[in-house]
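Lab meeting notes turned into a lecture example. A postdoc, R.K., suggested we walk through two folding results consecutively so the class can see how the record format repeats. The first protein's sequence and structure tokens come next.
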Amino acid sequence: MSTAIVVGGGIGGTAAALALLARGWSVEVFERAAEVAEVGSGISLWPNALRALDTLGVGAAVRAQGAAEVSAGIRDDRGRWLSRTDAATMRERFGTPVVIHRADLLDILRSALPDGVVRTGISVKEASVDGTVVHSEGTSTAELIVGADGIRSVVRRAVCGDITPRYAGYTAWRAVVALDEPLTEFGESWGRGARFGMAPLPDGRVYCFAVYNAPEHSTGTLADLRTRFADWHRPIPALLAAADPNAVLHNDIYDIPALPTYTAGRIALLGDAAHAMTPNLGQGGCQALEDAVVLGRLAAEPDGPARYDRDRRPRTQMISKRSADIGTVGQLSSRPLIALRDTALRLTPASAQFRSMAKILDWPTGP
């Protein structure tokens, strides 16, 4: 039986373990945290990711615990629509996206794994292309090492050397909140150097995020955030007022440069370790799920790593660049450029939007 070690027990790592187990591999997942958890935020699962989850055998469970995203679009900070997504056409053309709490998605993926596959509290110190992993409990070897250990990946050093994450120029706050009055309109709002997004969760709560231009490592409080968005359209101030200061996440936004390869020797990278991207397309986790399915399918092939790299690197790097470009446009602070941007959004026909989306959402799970 072929053996694999997956470094990282997040969404991408657990999905990779599922994909490899389904192909008959013996798998161990090394997770440095004592407990694997995703708190304080939701995740949008687009139809391409849902197809990946179907392949992994957990798509139905995810849909059952998620909420269908029935409305979307972009407004300005006054609440005037700049662009709206035709939900019926989206559903017919691609399928319906689902929003789920990250903790619930991770629970579903982990529950599908046999007991003992995920080993928590193990910190990986070094990985080698010969399949050796040095960690806090000793040394292990496997025929495949999967680097799913995030944007500051230790495993990646064996493949590409030291890679420094790049600050995107903006910082993000995320929260899951409850409002007394249910919302019927969701999506993003774009202002001057700032954006706000909201999406429904199945229990009636709302996943929301706020993004604004700031120097790297800037400090701030929830009170500062509420002041910054106080004059934005409803229900943005109410959502921020309802946020629990102890459950709000604040992170600067980073990506990584395009890597020359995702594989070396017995190592394959996936998710943020391979292609950490800005969240502007909602595709970071989705691409990690795609990675897992493709790696599971190809890993045992004689030229599997090379085929995995050829399959995944062009696609994920295209999506990463597109996401960064959208962030640049969304974070404009020049009033004349904002006026041009907003006008362009209003004039872009729905057909052009769907053609653009097709390049990402029309992803086949098979060869």
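The second example is placed directly after the first for contrast:
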Amino acid sequence: MTLTTDQQQIIEKIGVFFEKKGNQPILGRIIGLLMVIEEAEATFEDIQNALFVSKSAVSQALTLLQSQNKVEYITKPGERKRYFRLKIRNWKVDIQEDMKGVFKFNNIVEEIISTRSDSNMEFNSYLIEVSNFMKFMEAELPKLVERYKNQLK
């Protein structure tokens, strides 16, 4: 598999993006690779060779990406190889599930707010604002999803 300079740059941008979010850059690079190649799937060896990384780095990254439900693999009849691809087919459900996690965390934020004293009202007001925004998002997300579905009709 030969990548163009543009593809390599995009892959690197995605790797840097993931790194800035506190993840290993290899996670973003694998996702980037699977996004830019025309086949939208690659074998373990393809990934290793295209990204110039070790077997262990690819193995650990793919294991993590699969556990995060971001990557899956398929097999093809008559072949022993696994083909890794992004698990993007159910992106709407994935986004909603991710947001549910954020909304559940807001329950903890509200619990924290209820236990804090009035000694640091400035900080408390920030927590309250975050919590209020999360409640707003939770109420509005179903409406946004519905508007998006209607737009596709």
